[in-house]
From TrEMBL:
Pfam families: RmlD_sub_bind (PF04321). This is dTDP-4-dehydrorhamnose reductase. Pathway: Carbohydrate biosynthesis; dTDP-L-rhamnose biosynthesis. Its cofactor is Mg(2+). Transmembrane segments: none annotated. Belongs to the dTDP-4-dehydrorhamnose reductase family. Keywords: NADP, Oxidoreductase. The keyword Electron transport does not apply. Residues 1-292 form the RmlD-like substrate binding domain. The keyword Lipid metabolism does not apply. It comes from the Bacteria. It is an enzyme of class 1 (oxidoreductase). It comes from Rhizobium alvei.
Length: 302
């Protein structure tokens, strides 16, 4: 199975490159400069030459706060980019898996968001990603939208690595405790994408496999403060320093973009239709901390 992916240097694609071979997939990443999503005119020629079985559209403008002041660029990359990719996929008759976000929701629910719940993004990033979803769904390509959330990995820019960096010279970090979701490992996302890709490649005439699906870790709801506490206790278990999380409110941590208070995604549809369920986020974090900090068995107090 040949899978062409956009977003060569991103967390999800780096994970796909790592996990692809074990799943029998050849991952062909494309990134800048060969494809600038803000101007995807050459997408068809580029994709056609690579002859993919499946296309994964994972590149995005992901700077949530900066998007508020760079709306034009965010829409170009997150909406017109995927539109160009999906149009090419339709012409090539190749299915496309497009990665989207929990930030398409306003966070007003108190139970996990379903695929057909009302979308109402609070910021430019979420709105531009929503426009990307719409463009992909309207393209005529066989399409799966995978909305995921709170992505972190042993590589790339993410909240867990930010916490570990802050731990280097801080004993306490203030983190919001009133935004709830599920941290999701890019390694697990990659495994899920590979299974969905296999299903699409193997069952060409099954429209039930297409549409919007939510993809997130199992385990209890978590706030960013819970996630930070889990990172720091994992650090201490591995012989690192102890760092305290000061649990604060969103009002105490003002940011240019508003974020949803509750963005946990219901993953039942993905489990039912594609037979994909992700591990508990606490186990997934342990796997990633083993790589970032060292295995827990190396801890000093053993
Ligand atoms: N990170 C998260 O917490 C979440 C992410 N998602 C979605 O998952 C997907 C993957 O996210 P993630 O792996 O974290 O992404 P990253 O932020 O790690 O990487 C984004 C990638 O997109 C590329 N990119 C940005 N602008 C352009 C452009 N104009 N042309 C071509 N490539 C471009 C970047 O390339 P370069 O390095 O050259 O800038 C980079 O490779 C995205 O669609 C994102 O919206 C969904 C939920 C949560
Ligand atoms: C670094 C830091 C952040 N925070 C807060 C800010 C914010 O409300 C929350 C999350 O911080 P970040 O800005 O790192 O995360 P953010 O960029 O909002 O993460 C989002 O990225 C996009 C791409 C997505 O699609 C989302 O699913 C989500 O993962 O934690 C603290 O309270 N203390 C801190 O020290």
């Amino acid at each position: 199975m040949r899978i062409v992916v956009t977003g060569k240097s991103g967390q999800v694609v780096t994970a796909l490159i790592e996990r692809g071979p074990a799943a029998g997939a050849e991952i062909l990443p494309i990134g800048r400069p060969e494809l600038d999503l803000a101007d995807p005119e050459n997408a068809f020629e580029l994709l056609a030459a690579l002859a993919p079985d499946v296309i994964v559209s994972a590149a995005a403008y992901t700077a949530v706060d900066k998007a508020e002041s760079e709306a034009e660029l965010a829409y170009a990359v997150n909406a017109r980019g995927p539109e160009g990719i999906a149009a090419a996929a339709a012409r090539l008759n190749v299915p496309v898996i497009h990665i989207s976000t929990d930030y398409v929701f306003d966070g007003s629910k108190t139970s996990p968001w379903l695929e057909d719940d009302k979308v109402a993004p609070l910021g430019v990033y979420g709105a531009s990603k929503l426009a990307g979803e719409a463009a992909v769904l309207a393209s005529g390509a066989r399409a799966v939208i995978l909305r995921t959330a709170w992505v972190y990995a042993p590589f790339g820019a993410n909240f867990a690595r930010t916490m570990l960096r802050l731990a280097e010279n801080r004993d306490e970090v203030g983190v919001v405790a009133d935004q709830i979701g599920a941290p999701t490992s890019a390694l697990d996302i990659a495994d899920a994408i590979l299974k969905v890709a296999r299903n699409l490649a193997d069952h060409k005439d099954d429209p039930k496999l297409e549409g919007i699906f939510h993809l997130g870790a199992s385990g209890p709801d978590a706030s960013w403060a819970d996630f930070a506490e889990a990172v720091f206790s994992g650090l201490a278990e591995r012989g690192g320093k102890r760092v305290h999380v000061k649990r604060i409110g969103t009002v105490d941590y003002p940011t240019p973009a508003q974020r949803p208070h509750y963005s946990r995604l219901s993953t039942e549809k993905l489990a039912r239709v594609h037979a994909v369920t992700l591990p508990d986020w606490r186990d997934a974090l342990s796997v990633i901390l083993d790589r970032l900090v060292g295995p827990a068995s190396m801890r000093r107090d053993d």
